[in-house]
């Protein structure tokens, strides 16, 4: 699937989970009561959209590769080499578990600077994937991404907790939804890596085809907005 489709499906998954699941399912350590506030709900939507790009860190030509210019491109090339290529280690349940636990560990042991650095990176991914910047791989593109991500991080810094208990769930959910989307293509994913079993349900014959770009992605966007509106207007 295209980066835009991954991002919008991640946003929809977060908004749906926040609307349907008790807060104890969204947080770790578990919060036993209350509900997710409107600000956290909206922040989580954007951050999950960015997190839905994380498995493509193994793709030197993917959306994530050029999000921060040469820095992210070199990093993706290294990750691709270390993980065995595209749709191998980073497209597995093990990777989902790793980024979820890694987020929890960073938030709780490293504190606010880790949280803000992660927020910046996820916002940069969301900006790039949602086409909120000029196209291409040049400075005009990744410079715009950087400026918008810095501005968004500054805004979220005013609202986000030092240790947001919902952030690990957001990151893990985004990565998981990415795997689900890629399993709908004929190439599939090695969900049980390092086993060589490849899972696929080929409903999308080719990445970027008309079904994906003209039907699925618009539905993801419309669904996200509808669920957010319903959740916000019906909160006690």
Features:
single chain; 236 residues; mainly alpha; 9 helices; globular; membrane
Task: Report a brief summary of the structure.
The protein is mainly alpha-helical and 236 residues long.
Number of domains: 1
Secondary-structure content class:
mainly alpha
What would the principal axes of the Cα set say about the shape? globular
Sheet of most strands = none
Mean pLDDT: 90
Calculate the terminal CA-CA distance, rounded to whole Å: 37 Å
Compressed to H and E, one letter per element, the order equals: HHHHHHHHH
Task: Characterise the protein shown here.
The chain is an all-alpha fold and 236 residues long. It has one domain. It contains 9 helices and no strands. It has helices at 3-20, 23-26, 38-51, 70-83, 93-110, 112-129, 139-157, 167-182, 210-233. α1 (3-20) runs parallel beside α9 and α6 packs across α7 (139-157). The longest helix has 24 residues, at 210-233. The radius of gyration is 17 Å and the shape is globular.
Write the topology of this structure.
Elements: H1 3-20, H2 23-26, H3 38-51, H4 70-83, H5 93-110, H6 112-129, H7 139-157, H8 167-182, H9 210-233
């Amino acid at each position: 699937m295209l980066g835009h489709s991954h991002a919008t499906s991640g946003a929809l998954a977060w908004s749906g989970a926040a609307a349907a699941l008790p807060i104890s399912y969204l947080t770790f350590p578990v919060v036993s009561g209350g509900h997710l506030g409107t600000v956290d709900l909206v922040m989580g939507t954007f951050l999950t959209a960015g997190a839905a790009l994380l498995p493509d860190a193994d793709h030197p030509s993917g959306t994530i590769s050029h999000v921060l210019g040469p820095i992210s491109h070199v990093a993706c090339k290294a990750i691709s080499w270390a993980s065995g290529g595209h749709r191998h280690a980073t497209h597995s349940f093990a990777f989902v578990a790793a980024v979820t636990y890694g987020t929890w560990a960073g938030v709780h042991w490293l504190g606010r600077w880790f949280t803000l650095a992660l927020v910046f990176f996820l916002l940069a991914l969301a900006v790039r994937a949602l086409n909120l910047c000029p196209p291409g791989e040049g400075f005009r593109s990744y410079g715009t991404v950087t400026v918008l991500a810095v501005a968004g991080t500054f805004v979220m810094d005013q609202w986000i907790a030092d240790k947001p208990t919902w952030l690990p769930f957001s990151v893990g959910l985004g990565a998981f939804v990415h795997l689900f989307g890629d399993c709908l293509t004929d190439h599939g994913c090695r969900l049980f890596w390092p086993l060589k079993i490849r899972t696929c349900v080929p409903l999308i014959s080719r990445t970027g085809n008309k079904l994906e770009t003209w039907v699925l992605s618009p539905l993801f966007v419309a669904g996200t907005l509808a669920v957010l509106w319903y959740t916000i207007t019906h909160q006690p």
